[in-house]
């Protein structure tokens, strides 16, 4: 009986295929001792296709890690497009920058160093982003979602990763801060009038998790007091 790992391998081989630059980025990340928490290849391709479907020219990524998802997003924007990615750890950013240069897409990417909660306010007032991918510390999910709406526009696509946490997101009594952050993010997407959202469970080489997908419907709507403040 095939397992979910077998299915993931089949889907990756068939729909993603050979990816030397992606493989090199992952190898560099793992050699540097970073945790293997990057998106799976099929999920990276999903992000890539979402950006293309949205016609995204400006993409914001919160959480660079080793640059694997950044690479896929950079491939999705046009040659004059821009991916702005935020990374708290300088060593991670250096690895990501090297991988992006190796893949020939570094000219489309700007890596901003610092915690997302510190860097995001510096982007206020700029050209809105067409897609925002949130994949950083889960405890700050509501803060990141708030900024996704502020820095977006009606029609901006927002992707929130790791929302199922092996099923633990359904546990209202959990005291795990990452799970609590995932729950608050989902609750915010359901309550905040700036978003229209859904979520899907995923099962791949990284196990049981999920992703929330939202669109900004009104970036200026009044925010519930339990929304962005729920951090």
From TrEMBL:
CDD domains for the chain: AdoMet_MTases (cd02440)
Pfam families in the record: Methyltransf_3 (PF01596)
UniProt-listed SUPFAM superfamilies: S-adenosyl-L-methionine-dependent methyltransferases
GO annotation terms (biological process): methylation
Molecular function GO labels: O-methyltransferase activity; S-adenosylmethionine-dependent methyltransferase activity
Keywords from the UniProt entry: Methyltransferase, S-adenosyl-L-methionine, Transferase
UniProt-recorded name of the protein: Methyltransferase
């Amino acid at each position: 009986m095939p397992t979910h790992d077998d299915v993931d391998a089949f889907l990756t081989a068939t729909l993603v295929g050979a990816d030397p630059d992606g493989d090199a980025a992952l190898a560099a990340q793992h050699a540097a001792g970073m945790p293997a928490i990057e998106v799976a290849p099929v999920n990276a391709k999903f992000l890539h296709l979402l950006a293309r479907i949205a016609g995204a020219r400006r993409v914001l990524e919160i959480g660079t890690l080793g640059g694997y998802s950044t690479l896929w997003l950079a491939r999705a924007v046009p040659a004059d497009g821009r991916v702005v990615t935020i990374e708290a750890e300088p060593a991670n950013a250096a690895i990501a920058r090297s991988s992006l240069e190796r893949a020939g897409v570094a000219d489309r990417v700007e890596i901003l160093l610092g915690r997302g909660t510190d860097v995001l306010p510096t982007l206020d007032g700029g050209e809105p982003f067409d897609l925002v991918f949130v994949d950083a510390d889960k405890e700050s999910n509501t803060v990141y979602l708030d900024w996704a709406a502020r820095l977006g526009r009606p029609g901006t696509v927002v992707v929130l990763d790791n929302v199922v946490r092996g099923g633990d997101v359904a546990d209202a009594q959990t005291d795990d801060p990452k799970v609590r952050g995932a729950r608050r993010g989902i609750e915010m997407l359901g309550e905040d009038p700036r978003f229209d959202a859904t979520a899907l469970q995923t099962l791949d080489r990284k196990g049981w998790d999920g992703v929330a997908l939202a669109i900004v419907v009104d970036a200026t709507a009044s925010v519930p007091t339990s929304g962005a403040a729920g951090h």
